[in-house]
Every structure is written in C-alpha cells, then in structure tokens.
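Lab meeting notes turned into a lecture example. A postdoc, R.K., suggested we walk through two folding results consecutively so the class can see how the record format repeats. The first protein's sequence and structure tokens come next.
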Amino acid sequence: MTFRHCVAVDLGASSGRVMLATWDCTQRTLSLREMHRFANCLQKQDGFNTWDIDELEAEIRTGLKKVCDSGILIDSIGIDTWGVDYVLLDRNGNRVGLPVSYRDSRTDGLMATAIAQLGKDNIYGRSGIQFLPFNTLYQLRALVEQQPALVKKVAHALLIPDYLSYRLTGNMNWEYTNATTTQLVNINTDSWDEHLLAWTGAPPSWFGTPTHPGNAIGQWLCPQGNAIPVVAVASHDTASAVIASPLASKDAAYLSSGTWSLMGFESKTPYTSDAAMAANITNEGGAEGRYRVLKNIMGLWLLQRMLKEQHIFDLPALLAETETLKACTFLINPNDDRFINPVHMSAEIQSACFEAGQPVPSRPAELARCIFDSLALLYADVLSELANLRGKPFSQLHIVGGGCQNQLLNQLCADACGITVVAGPVEASTLGNIGIQLMTLDELSDVDEFRSVVTANTRLTTFIPNPCHEIARYRAQFQQKRLTKELCA
C-alpha cells in the first residue's frame, strides 16, 4: 500500500479540529490537511461551568463525514483532548449529569482537605502527579459530596477522549496517558490506586483497567458503510504533543505551548523525591513506558481571555506594539489560582500588579507585555527546577503547539532561559496522534522513528538567546538576589 490516510481528532480547551494525515509509505513524507475546525467554549449550566459535549461530538462527526464525502478511504481514527475531565454514564451507557469543566469552582478547598486527611507525601508517593486544585481526584470528591443523588445513577466514568471514542465505537476504554492526569493512577502499578479512589467516594466499578496507547478500541461505521478502526492514541493532548516533539537529544526539554504551557523532559523513570514534590513536578504517562516529567504553567489562557475582553482581533499588530514596550515593567505569577477562571482576566491582572506595588497595565499592549514577560520568567524558573531535579542542564528547548507561532514569546523565552529555542511543529498534538496510529498500522516502529519523520517534514525555527536583553538581565539580577539570600540564610 503506497498511502495511508489517518484522521486525528484533536480537541483543546478552546478549539477543536479534525485533521487528515496522508502518509506516503514510499517517500516517507507526511502531510496534514485541516478538514474541519470549530470552537470549544465553556458554558454555564445549572450553576456549573461545563463543556457542550454533545456539540463537540456533532462537530467531530461533521469533520469525519467531510473526509468520507471527499472519497478518501480512512485507515484509522484517533482522538486526543485535554486531561482530568470526565463524562458519567448509567448502566445502559447513557450520559447522566453534566460534563463539568476543570475550571469550575466546585473543587475549591478540596485539595487542602485531601492533603490534610491523606498526607501530601502519601498522595504524591502513590501518584507522582502535580498538585492542581482541579485534578480528577478532587473533582470526584466534589461530585460525591455535592450530588449524591446523581452518584446513585452512575455505572461508568470515562475521561473525555474515551467517551468520544465510545460514542463512535460503542466500546469503553480507559487510555493510560490521560488516566495519569487524574492523580488517581498508582505510579508503580499503572492502574487505579484503591486508596486514593476510596477517598473520593467513587466506586472502583466505574473504571476499567487503563490501557497503554496503540490498541484499537473498536470500529466506526462511516456513512459509506466502511468499518474504520478507532485507535487509542496517547489521548492526553500533551502526551501526543510530546510524541511529535523533535527532541534532538536526551538533554533536550520541551514546552507544549497553547491554552496551557507544559514544560518538561522525557524519562524512563519517574521523579518522586521530596525535591520533586516541593517543586510540584508531575510524572504523567507517555508512550512506550516513558514518563513526561513536567510542570503545568497557566499558558496563553491569560492572553486568550484578555484578547476577547479587549476586543482585539489583529494579533500581529498587537504583538508589534507590545515588542516596543520596556520589558519587566509589569509582572505577575501566571500560575496563581486567581487566573484559573476569573470573572474578568484583564482586571485580575491589573489587580495583581496593583497589589504588588507595580505600575498597572492599562492598554492591551501593556497587558500583553505583562503576560509574555511573566510567562517567559516563569518558563525560566521551571526549566531551572527541572535541570536541578535531573542534576544536569538542558542543551535546548523545543517549543511545540499553537503557541510556538508567537515569535515574540519564543525569543523572550530564549532570552530569559538563556537557552537555544527550537520552535515547531505547530500541530504537535495532531501529529503525535497520527504517529501512534501509524505505529498501530505497522507503518512505523517506535516514537524515535516517528520523530525523525517529524523533523524531516517540519519547518523548524531557531531562536538564539540574547544575554543583553532586558529580560535576561532582570532574570540574572533576580537569580543573584535569590542566591545571596540563600547564602545568608
């Protein structure tokens, strides 16, 4: 067979797309074609922030129909999405309750309760997962405490990509890479941790055994009557993005940049030391037994919200104005919980600057400057934490995903981190999704071979750090102050 046609359904927290990949088996070239793109927006329903899961399913089916109507015979389909969120089903497989978003406030205070009752060391030692207030561990506890009548109707809980695959195939699956984001999978057994699950109050019967990526869940019957395999890819979008990161060596780090920024490195072994827990490092599952040792950073969510509030539609013009402004005039901590889902992001940023005794950004370009500088400096902090954890510096940083198109932020990242940045590919999660499909179809042998394909078929842009840039000098001064403080302690 000369060509393979694979479809990747890639859902992010703000948009989704159905992408067609064509693999030329002879020339070893891979091309992508966008077949359908759609928005994914939070909606308020019954007092909760929820996902319109029925609309997302309808958009996916529309995209798949477009591929089939074009006359292309699809070899396989894979679905990846964000992590931690789930859909509840009754014993007949029908949805019950609402698909509540991780940005909902129902979990407020529950992480602190879990730490007090279970012990932070115990939770981290079992899961190896970063403490985030919206992890599924706390979502399930909120569900059981706040909606006991609903709990009685539930027979199954499926994470978002597993639910959408179930809707296409009728078969249930619990894919491993996404399951690890829940903070409920035991890092030593790769299965659900009975102790952590018991704390939530959710019955173990809701969950099946997690399966590693690369198996066919079932088949989708297309309008033309063809039965098409639906593959369990690395269904957490970051897991797929890492698969497609053209990591040049074992000393390369990655930054998956989008609504969230996720910075980390690959490892055959997890990092669960006291230092890792203190730095709030996560050990999420990856393909081929590799761990994604990383840290979640709030990312371009702040910018997306600000642009919407300020009615900014010409992003290039805003970036050009932003670049002319002095760096590090306005700074915030992007990972502060106050930015998870504020009523008004611009006002929240302004309040944070005011409370810190800084100048307050007013114009959109000033708000953007604040976001970019703050993210770049946080990237530098996290990269330093990761390097200290592994006991070795990184040689370069690969930025992948939609955010890698932001050349200003890429350069600021290089300057603040003092490291060469390589940007691309943009559609990393889609490509990683396709990569697992091609491996399942026996077209490629492993992740390393796929990364060589990505490198050969992608335009990569290199950013060289400028030690004289304002942000680099600010970073150096900050490091010196912190070192002096530590030496004097």
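The second example is placed directly after the first for contrast:
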Amino acid sequence: MIDVRNLLGHDWSVKEEDLSAYSSEIARAAKEVTKLRQTGLGPDGSLVLFPRLPYILDEDILISEKEKAALDRVENLSKEQDIVISIGIGGSYLGNQVLFDLHCGPFWNMMTKEERKGFPKVFFAGHNVDPTGLLALADQVKRESRHLGRKAKVLLLTISKSGTTLEPSTAIHGLTEELKDTAEMTIVGVTDREKGVLRALARDHHLPCFTVPDGIGGRFSELSQVGLVFAKLIGIDIRELLRGAKMVEEACRSEDYKENPALLLASLKYIALRKYRVAAEIIMPYGDRLRSFGWWYAQLLGESLGKKYNNKGEKVYYGRIPVATVGTTDMHSLTQEHQQGAKNKLVQFISVENKARDISVECSEKEVTGQVPMSFMLKTALRSNEEALAAEGRMSCHISVREGTTFHLGALMYFFFLCIAYEGYLADINAFDQPGVEGYKKILHQGIYEYICEHSGK
C-alpha cells in the first residue's frame, strides 16, 4: 500500500493543482519510461535494461543458459562450505546485505548448521578499506578452522565489474593472503562478461563465474546475477524475489499517474523539490530487519538523482540529500529535527504489516496495566511519527507491505527503481550514470600510484 495523504492535499504539502500545473512534465516522463522499456536505451543512448530484470530467468538477454544452469548448482555448492564471504561495494554490497538481514536475521552465524538448514555462516567484506575490519574477519575464519579441527571451507563471492575496484580487490588480496594456510578457499566471481581480472582468474582455474549484465548499473543490480547468486547461497527462492518485482512492473506501466503509483510518488517528490524546496529525503523503515534497506535506498537515490547537469548539458544541481534511519530507534535521536528543524525535508516511511513472530509485554499507561503486543507498539510509533510530523506541517509518505518475505522485498526494491526512473525523466537528468563518482576515484588512484612509486623506488 502506498499512502501519500501527508504528501498531497494540504496547505503545507503538494496540492492537486500542482499536479495539473506539472502535467506536461509528468506526461513526458511517463512516455520516456515507456520508451525505455521498449528500447532499453537511456537518455544518452546507453543501455538501461533494469525493466527486464523481473523476467531475467525467462530470457537469455541478461543471463545465458549456462549461467542459469550454474545458478541451480550454487545452493549445493553453498552447503559444502563452512563460511561464505560476500565481497563487494555499493550496489554489490548493499543489496546483498538487505537480502541477508531480511532472510537470515542478526543471529544467523550463532545458529548451528542444522538450524541454518545446511547453509554456511555469512560475512561481508570489500565495502571499506579499513584494515581493522578485514583482519578481524580473517581472525574469525582462523578461529573457525581451529574449532573445526581442520581448514574451514570458505567461499569468496567476489562481485566487481572490472575486478579492480579498490575495496573488493583489496579484500580478496588481503583475505587470500591471510588465510592461505588456514582455510580452503573457493572463489566465485560476478564480473564483466568478457574481460577483467576475475574473468581471467575463473578461466584459468576453472572457477564458477557469473556476469554483471550490460545495461544494469550497480545500484539497479540486486535482481540480476549480483543478487541472485548471493540469494541462492543463503537459500532464498529467487523466483519469489523476481515474482514480486514482476508484479510491480506490470502494475506500474500506465502513463496516467492516477493508475500508476510509481509515477504518482515520483511526481509528488519531484514537485516537492521543485516548488517547495524539499532538499532532503529521510528513508525510515520500521523494524530491525529493514535497517539496511535504508542504506540501500540512500545509494539508489543519491547516485541516481544527485546530478550537476541536465540532459541538455545545463547546470541544474538536482537531487535530495538521502538520510538512512530506522524506526523506532531514530525517533529518539533524529525526530526532533525532523519535526521542528528546517522545513526542507520529507520522510519516506516503510513498514511490514504482519510480523512473522510477536511477543506481548506488560505496559502501564495512565495507571492502567496490560499486555501489549510489540508489533502494535511498532505500528503505533510509526503512526505517531506521521501525525506529529503532519501537525508541524512536514511532508511524509508511507509504503507498507503485507509481510516481510522475499516476494515483498523484490516488489519494494523494484518499485523504487521505477520511482527513480520516473523522477529522473521528470527532472530531465540521467538517473542511470554517476559521473561524480569518477572524480574522486581519479584522485584516489593517483594518490595510491604516487605511494607505490615512492615506496618501490620506481
């Protein structure tokens, strides 16, 4: 369910007449996304194929028959391992963290292998170049080997288009060096179709290797091989994940915003920024297992819409500052600013209606004591936040899914893909590139090059 009651129709929010005033932009954006679906070409003529992801297993445009067969074998390969380490950064890390948190929960690695239904322990690396975390992970693998009385079997799932991205390549080199005497390692790569370090490594050593499809940017990649391989490694039904995405894709094809919730929400957020100067978007999922979803969405929003130039080459400095939070935790740290700080933000709430497990605890209010389900408290906290924000004239919107399943996660992720695509065309920017990221990378790699030259005598 998409609830926009606190984003539309008030004297402090977007108004119905605003939708009419921006009708030409909305109509143009709708037609452009329809064209994108048909041609697979983005604003600059480059491939943009994320609308085909819900159908990835039914076609060979994004995945080969050989890869489909290899996917079917991944689950058995996983059960042969003691540990899986997912190595990647950006979309190659954040989406898999979301899958893990939702499906496995925070105490997965403390369960027995039987309780994990034969699946291994799971860790993440390659999302920072902090040596402390990498060495601590290596120490943990060594402890596992001592506990088992043999070399631990470790699968390194390494996700990198080029194979040379600094954080993942650092992690793979560091871990293989640290664990060469204490772990039995298998490397599975997800990389470029034909070239790159990982592809060559897989070819030389007959290792499993999957492709990051052309036309699928990192932040849109979770429903591709990037996420599907990891999902199989932890026992997720990938067809359910894709079925959720397919449901949203087919429900959001209309060019009429009254019949297309993704187009409507994108239009409201666009108008909120353009007319009402909303400069920040707080993503606030309610529930511990959705915490990392906020980080994932922050990257999708920031990299996609934070652009200096529009498609005509004019400077526009478009975008909203993404802020990842979680309810109820951050109601005790950030809500004060949300409610009474600068009126330049909107809050995107996300909730799960039906919790798989619940517990009632004793509560006392106004000298009345009784048992209250914690799920009721969570829902009431969200509603309280919505109402308090509205009372202060602050915009918010609320997306709720019935259950916290992989089907619903696939639907939620794909819904935001579409919202971002529509808003990109509304703003006449390219939501599918990331030129700003390349700027810092050049400076970073130059610094490392100079260090190598200085310390190697070259």
